[in-house]
Amino acid sequence: MRDFVQSVVKVSREELPRVLYAWALRFFLKFGQVLGWTVVIAVTVTRFSIHQLPIILLVQGFFTIVGTLFFSVIVNRFKGIHILLLNISFAVVLLFVAFLYYEHDLVFTVFSLLANGIFLSQVSIMLSNYTEDFFTPLEAERIVPTVESADTIGGILAGSLLASATFASLGSTLILIWIGCLGSFLLLLFLLKPKLPFFLQELEKNSPALHSPSLAWNAISKSIDEIRRVPFLQIFLTVLIFHGVIAQFIEFLYTKAVDESVHLSSVADHEASLTHSLGILHVFLHGSALIVELFVSSRLLRSLGTFAGFLIHVVMIFFSGLAMVFGYGYLTAVLARNNFEMTTIIQRNAYETSYYAFRYGTLRSLREFFEGIILPLAAVLGTILILGIENFFMEEDLGAVIPFFLLSLALGMGVFAFQLQKHYTDMTIQNLYSRIPIAQHHAIEIISQRGHKNSFDHLLKIFYTTESFLIQEKIIRAFGSLGGEKVAVFLARMLRSERDDLYSDILLSCKDLGRMLNRSASGKRIRLRLRKALIHFLKRSELEPSVKAEALATLSYFDPDALVPYLSSDEWLLQAVAAVDLWKSNLHKEEVDTVLRQWEVKRDENSLFGLLYFVGHVSSKRF
Question: Which CATH class is domain 13-192+218-423?
Answer without folding.
Answer: mainly alpha
